[in-house]
Design a protein that fits this description.
The structure holds two protein chains of two kinds. Chain A folds into two domains: about 1-55; about 60-95. Helix content of chain A is about 80%, strand content about 0%. Chain A is built from five helices and no strands. The chains are: A mainly alpha, B mainly alpha.
């Protein structure tokens, strides 16, 4: 019964996301450059988002999966352009001058 | 209504399948919404004026408590959906109740954190930093609050009507919403809190 209610995949996904959160804490514990810290945070955050999307949200399981992937990738593109575009016009653009 | 027995209940009718698709499109819009709030925060986070800076304001303990609570709740709602697919109504409801309790714990910790901020002289009007921070955190917190009411309403329906194609569909869509809030929190945890304390 317990085995049935706690599928291995989900338990592994949960353990993995906890481990990633602890790894992200390394940016506070160890003295490192800003670039190195940001790189660690980007990798751990994106990995965690993928665990949720692929494992817990079952994005790839239905016949609509192509539509779902297209929609989410497009939304992420809009999000990245919004964030990087804002930073470019409001901050980085001035520093380069 | 044509019910396809080979699929999980929540997908078993054409309408159900389209509702799930529609909800994913809504989540796409939510990604755009949170991106604008992150963009504002990343632009303004250094503008703390006479108020506290990120480094002075953030404390790791409540943030870690919030992260663990929300990550665990995301796991338990996943188990709830898994139990639902096995047709185990009682187990499914138990996991959903645990999820909502963890969500309530998250919200309580976040409210405590906000009260602390205000005591330290950081209100939403203090600086560009606190305005953009509290708008971002508040929007996420409002989503969690809404989710608690939504999840409770769904639990009542499942208790009354059992696992039908409709209630299973609603429960699954709610689980998508909950996982999405967890994803947004991961980015707040990483790029607001940890980056701010780095």
């Amino acid at each position: 019964m317990m085995k049935q209610l706690f599928p291995k995949q989900h338990v592994m996904g949960f353990v993995f996301s906890m481990v990633l959160s602890v790894v992200a804490l390394a940016v506070l514990v160890f003295d490192m450059s800003y670039k190195m810290g940001m790189a660690i945070l980007l990798v751990t955050a994106i990995a965690q988002a993928l665990v949720q999307l692929l494992l817990f949200m079952h994005i790839g399981e239905s016949e609509d999966k192509k539509t779902l992937y297209t929609n989410i990738i497009y939304a992420l593109f809009v999000g990245v352009v919004t964030i990087l575009g804002t930073l470019f016009t409001m901050i980085w653009g001035y520093q380069m001058l | 209504m044509k019910i396809d027995e080979s699929l999980p209940l929540e997908y078993s009718t054409e309408e159900n399948r389209l509702k799930i698709l529609g909800f994913w499109i809504f989540l796409g819009a939510e990604i755009a919404l949170f991106s604008t709030l992150f963009a504002v925060y990343f632009t303004l986070h250094n503008g703390h004026g006479n108020g506290p800076s990120a480094e002075e304001l953030f404390k790791i303990t409540p943030v870690m408590i919030e992260t663990v609570l929300l990550l665990t709740s995301s796991f338990t709602i996943g188990l709830g959906i898994h139990a639902m697919r096995l047709g185990l109504k009682k187990a499914m409801m138990t996991f959903f109740v645990i999820t909502l309790v963890l969500g309530l714990g998250f919200l309580g910790t976040e409210i405590y954190e906000f009260v602390e901020y205000i005591h330290e002289g950081a209100t939403i009007q203090t600086s560009a930093f606190t305005s953009s921070l509290m708008t971002l955190l508040g929007t996420h917190g409002a989503h969690v609050t809404f989710g608690l009411f939504w999840g409770t309403a769904i639990l009542i329906q499942v208790a009354k009507r059992g696992l039908t194609p409709e209630t299973a569909n609603k429960s699954f869509i709610f689980s998508l919403y909950w996982h999405f809030l967890d994803v947004v929190w991961i980015f707040i945890f990483s790029f607001v809190y940890l980056k701010g304390m780095m």
